Task: inverse folding
């Protein structure tokens, strides 16, 4: 009988320790790293370089507005939308090229948007315009697209029209990580010219703000694993855990006394 109740106590301890605590859900905690109150986020040392399947929005402006219309297929009365950019934007093909009006194929793989601006401007001046045309070229990514999976509020693809987005902004836009999600080991699947790589980031630690993966990149996949506590099946809070324990304890006690009376 004593051994039986010792098992109950051990089971009670395991379940009680499985409830989710503040340390599991609070972002950017100072875990004894002695960071300054005014932690500065350093800009990415390496600007984003265009990859295969990226969609570019390219605007060409000059003194003669009618003359440059052919170079701006995505301009319309409705403006530039995600749908119009999908059909009329400049998609980087598997060889790293875009098909630009008049100029034909331009290789942009591995270039920054600033470098592409200079390249398009130079080609236009060389083959089509004179310097007196006062050409102005603007190149932007057609939205920063990323995908979320796992223990997160909204799964699927999202597009944000910003030049830079950090992972907390991306997660907030997707409905935040659920209480049952593991914030200490969030996975980022990132595309590189040679393939994909998986990176890890601990969002409960304030040092995540200094990580090279704190800012997301186009086509990133953010995966949030479930906490091990969820697999146990106990509640997320102490109250829920105690309710679960009480129910299981009651069933076990009833089973034990019924077995003794047989």
Result:
């Amino acid at each position: 009988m004593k051994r039986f109740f010792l098992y109950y106590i051990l089971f009670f301890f395991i379940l009680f320790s499985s409830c989710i605590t503040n340390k599991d859900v609070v972002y950017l905690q100072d875990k004894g790293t002695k960071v300054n109150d005014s932690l500065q986020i350093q800009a990415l040392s390496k600007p984003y370089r265009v990859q295969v399947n990226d969609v570019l929005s390219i605007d060409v402006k000059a003194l003669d507005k009618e003359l440059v219309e052919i170079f701006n297929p995505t301009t319309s009365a409705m403006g530039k939308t995600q749908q119009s950019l999908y059909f009329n934007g400049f998609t980087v093909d598997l060889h790293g090229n875009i098909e630009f009006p008049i100029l034909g194929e331009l290789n942009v793989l591995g270039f920054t948007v600033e470098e592409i601006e200079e390249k398009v401007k130079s080609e236009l001046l060389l083959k089509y315009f004179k310097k007196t045309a006062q050409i102005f070229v603007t190149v932007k990514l057609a939205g920063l697209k990323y995908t979320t999976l796992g223990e997160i509020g909204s799964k699927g693809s999202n597009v944000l029209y910003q030049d830079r987005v950090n992972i907390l902004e991306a997660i907030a836009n997707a409905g935040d990580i659920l209480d049952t999600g593991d914030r200490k080991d969030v996975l980022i699947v990132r595309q590189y010219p040679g393939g994909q790589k998986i990176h890890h980031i601990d969002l409960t630690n304030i040092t995540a703000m200094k990580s090279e993966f704190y800012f997301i990149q186009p086509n990133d996949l953010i995966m949030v694993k479930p906490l091990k506590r969820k697999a146990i099946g106990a509640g997320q809070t102490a109250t829920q855990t105690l309710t679960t324990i009480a129910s299981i304890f009651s069933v076990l006690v009833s089973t034990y006394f019924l077995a003794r009376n047989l």
Remarks:
- Helices lie at 2-16, 22-25, 82-88, 113-127, 167-173, 228-232, 238-261.
- The first helix runs from residue 2 to 16.
- The domain at 22-44+143-227 is CATH 3.10.560.10 (Outer membrane lipoprotein wza fold like).
- The first strand starts at residue 55 and ends at 61.
